[in-house]
Amino acid sequence: MSKFLQSAVFMSVSLAASLIVGVAQANEAAAPAAADPAKAKTIVENTCGGCHGVDGNSMIAANPRLAGQHPEYLLKQLQNFKGKDGKPAERKNAVMGGMVAALSDEDMRHLAAYFAGQKAGGGQTKGDRASVDLGQRLWRAGDIKRGLPACAACHGPAGAGLPAQYPRLAGQHADYTEAQLKAFRLSERANDPNKVMQAIAAKMTDAEMKAVADYAAGLR
Fold first, then answer.
1. Is residue 188 packed enough to be buried (19+ CB in 10 Å), middle (13-18) or exposed (0-12)?
2. CA-to-CA dists, residue 85 to 25, 73, 95, angstroms
3. Burial of 105 per CB tally in 10 Å (0-12, 13-18, 19+)
4. Where are the domains of the chain?
5. Class of the 31-116 domain?
6. Fewer beta carbons below 10 Å: N end or C end of the chain?
7. pLDDT one-digit tens code per residue, 107-159
């Protein structure tokens, strides 16, 4: 392994380690208590399935695939879309805000458990070879000269993420991942603990965002 790659990996791992405590604390309150996936079935069939698929494998590129996602992460997003304990929504989205408005915390726990228990389908890389190669480099090693950490440091080499801390990105629609990176860069999405993703996305170009999204879509 080259000294450059060793330095990049070390920087990425160090960043992940320094953030892990803060992110874990932020998610601690969101950790799902006893949940029953079966109790979410009616809500999924009547509300969620149209956009995300009844099995959580959305066929619409603008809507994220939820199957196999960490339940803690799913619950946090639902709570952020609605707002919690009288606080306004941390994640602004007119469609999702309306969808979660009538959901109780118990409903959200059941939904998080339901989608987490579904089998994630395979994604598909759609970028050209040069874009995918760039995405692979950034995913594995980041860019040490620009202080850009490797995506793998938090989301794992295969994109599986870390339960309760970082979401699964493997197989996610490239269009959706790219859109979220751009939203983080503009702070239009600002529900990331300690503004981690906002800081990272601020250093990325449009081409790099597309490349990373394309690469992640093909991970298994």
1. middle
2. 17, 18, 21
3. middle
4. 31-116, 123-217
5. mainly alpha
6. N
7. 999 999 999 999 998 877 877 899 999 999 999 999 999 999 999 999 999 99
